[in-house]
Each structure stands twice: as structure tokens, then as C-alpha cells.
Specification:
The chain is an alpha+beta fold. It is 53% helix and 16% strand. The chain contains 14 helices and 8 strands. The strands form 2 sheets. A 4-stranded mixed beta sheet has the order 1-4-5-8. A 4-stranded antiparallel beta sheet has the order 2-3-7-6, with no helix packed on it. Strand 2 and strand 3 form a beta hairpin. Helix 4 runs antiparallel to helix 5. The longest helix has 26 residues. The mean pLDDT is 95. Pfam families: Acyl-CoA_dh_N. It comes from Salsuginibacillus halophilus.
Length: 346
């Protein structure tokens, strides 16, 4: 097996510009991560698996946060399958999702906002013999394609919501690709419309989604933190490379690499503490909020330090700036985080 850095250098680095400029979806690379064992939970507790996988997300995101985001989508799906009480579903999907035979995604942007009191649920489910029939639409679900599966939550009644695992090839599901994003090209993002999509009982993650969501939401957020850490690391490295340009004028700018490194070390330490002590909802939300603002500060500072070259359309610094602005609006968004943290407990 290659080391992770060897895999990133040989298999991801050559794709980064195509991902950013041509909306190339790095499906084969994502599958290769699993094939080489980087996503296996065998012999690990859930916490140990999350710690190891967070390191992979950070390393991937230091090269390309869009690919890191795709990986987060897949790990979110893995989280749902790992936590489900539907043993048959877990046995059917877990090994394939971990070992590079299947890719997964998450359709929980709208439900997470629903549980925070920000939106209504967009999907409706009707109990029918052998499963559920689902109707409605999701505005954007990423990391999708033929053969992929994703989690979704639909309202059955005022007192019940169900969480299901949906095939992208399901009858009645229409997907329309969304491109020309500011910082999300190459993420295989689609608008999804459900028209009497039948989901059998064996593909139900939880009959009671309200009780299931608290068991998975901390990991849902956990895998997002390293997206920002990876981008921040690369932004700081870029700033250091140009420290002596224009007769050292960069040293007069208000934000220096050393300032960001102190904050990065603090966020990383707090994140590690969450991983090793057992991720708490309140704790990981605060770490996620700090990661957002740190990432924004890092990419903005890098644009100033690098100067003119950063404004080329093919600039890595410009790409990281766009990626950071997507990170700002990844559910839970910055304003979503602020609302949840101001009204704890959630």
C-alpha cells in the first residue's frame, strides 16, 4: 500500500486543476482511498476510526478541498451505516463503502436545518407495504452518480420522520447536475426530485429519525473540521514561500503566518481533544465555528501576501479562497453554527 502522501502526490495532485476548472469528479481517486484501506474501521472503535479518517480528510483537503468535501460526503454516509440498528443494511453496505467498491453521500443539509429550526423538511414519506414511498425535492446533494447511495430524511407525520438510504438509480428519482459554482465544481452535485420513489424496509436507516439524528450528527460535523484545517495549512505554507518578496514588505502586513499557526495549533488541539475524549455536540460545534473563521482569515491573508500571482484564474491561492467561501456555507453554515451555539442546548 502506498503511503497517503504518495497516493495524494501521484493520484490527486495531477487532477486538482481539472476538478477546479473543468468540474472533473475524482471518483476513481475516492474509490482508491477505500481500496488502499484508508477508510477501513476494521479493528477500530468508532472514535478511533473517526480520528484516522479525519487525518485523511485534512491531508486530501490540503491538496483540494473539493475532493476533501466529496470524501466528507462519503464519510457521512459511512457514519449513517455504521450507526444504524438495521443489521441487514449495515452488513450489505458497510464493507463496500469502506473498501472502495461503493460511494455514498448525504442528503441531510435540509434536515439539519430543520432540526435547528431554520427550514421545513422538503421530503414527505408515506408508509406502504414493504417500505416507504417518498416525494419532494432536495436542492443540492453532492458526491452522487450512478451506483451511488445517499442518506435522506422524510416526514411521515407530524410525530414521525424516517431516515432512508437511497440509490441514485432508484425509479422515480430525477437528478439534475449543478455546475458553475464559485468553489464547488467537480463535487458531483445534483438537484434531486423524488416522485413516488419506493424505499424498501431493508434500506431504512432509522424508522425514528428524530432519535437517530443525535447519534450521528456529531460525526457529521466532525469530518468537516479537517476540511478547513487542510486549506489553512496550505494557505500558511503559501504565505511562507513569499515572505521575502518585494524586499520583505509582507512582514509589515497585519496577519502573519505565525499568527495563523498559533490559532491553527489551538483549533487542532481542541479538535484532537474532542476526538480522543468522545465527540460532544456542543464541543464539536465550537471547534467547527473556530475552523470556519480561521480558514477565512488564512485564505484572505494568503491573497494579500502572494499578491498579483494569486489573482490568476489558475492560482492555487485563488482556488483556496473560493473553497473557503464554500466551507463558510457548508451545512452547518456559519450563521447556522452561530444560531445553534447561541441557543444551546440544541
Amino acid at each position: 500500500m502506498q503511503t497517503l502522501q504518495e497516493l495524494l502526490q501521484q493520484s490527486l495532485k495531477p487532477l486538482v486543476r481539472a476538478v477546479d476548472e473543468k468540474a472533473y469528479y475524482p471518483k476513481d481517486f475516492l474509490l482508491e482511498l477505500g481500496r488502499q484501506g484508508w477508510l477501513s474501521s476494521e479493528g477500530r472503535s468508532r472514535a478511533e476510526a473517526a480520528e484516522a479518517e479525519a487525518e485523511v480528510v485534512e491531508a486530501v483537503s490540503s491538496y483540494c478541498m473539493t475532493t476533501g468535501f466529496n470524501l466528507w460526503c462519503h464519510l457521512a454516509a459511512l457514519t449513517y451505516v455504521r450507526h444504524t440498528s438495521n443489521d441487514a443494511l449495515r452488513q450489505r453496505f458497510l464493507a463496500d463503502l469502506e473498501n472502495g467498491r461503493l460511494l455514498g453521500a448525504t442528503g441531510l443539509s435540509n434536515p439539519m436545518k430543520y432540526y435547528a429550526g431554520l427550514e421545513k423538511l422538503n421530503l414527505r414519506a408515506e408508509k406502504v407495504p414493504g417500505g416507504y414511498r417518498i416525494n419532494g425535492a432536495l436542492a443540492a446533494v453532492s458526491n452522487l452518480g450512478s451506483g451511488h447511495w445517499f442518506g435522506a430524511i422524510a416526514e411521515v407525520s407530524a410525530s414521525q420522520r424516517v431516515m432512508v438510504f437511497v440509490s441514485c438509480d432508484a425509479a422515480g428519482l430525477t437528478m439534475k447536475e449543478k455546475v458553475s459554482y464559485l468553489g464547488l465544481n467537480g463535487s458531483a452535485t445534483y438537484a434531486c426530485r423524488f416522485e413516488d420513489v419506493f424505499v424498501p424496509d431493508e434500506e431504512v436507516l432509522a424508522e425514528d429519525a428524530d432519535s437517530f439524528v443525535p447519534s450521528i450528527r456529531s460525526y457529521f460535523v466532525t469530518y468537516q473540521v479537517p476540511l478547513g484545517l487542510g486549506v489553512t495549512n496550505s494557505a500558511v505554507a503559501s504565505m511562507k514561500k513569499c515572505s521575502e518578496r518585494q524586499n520583505g514588505a509582507n512582514q509589515l502586513l497585519p496577519t502573519q503566518p505565525e499568527h495563523l499557526e498559533v490559532r491553527l495549533a489551538d483549533v487542532s488541539t481542541r479538535f484532537q481533544e474532542e476526538l480522543t475524549s468522545g465527540v460532544s455536540w456542543e464541543g464539536i460545534l465550537e471547534v467547527r465555528r473556530q475552523a470556519v473563521y480561521l480558514t477565512l482569515d488564512a485564505v484572505n491573508a494568503a491573497m494579500m501576501h502572494v499578491g498579483g500571482p494569486a489573482y490568476s484564474q489558475t492560482s492555487a491561492d485563488g482556488r483556496r479562497l473560493r473553497e473557503a467561501y464554500f466551507f463558510l456555507n457548508l451545512t452547518p453554515t456559519a450563521k447556522h453554527l452561530e444560531k445553534m451555539l447561541s441557543t444551546q442546548p440544541v
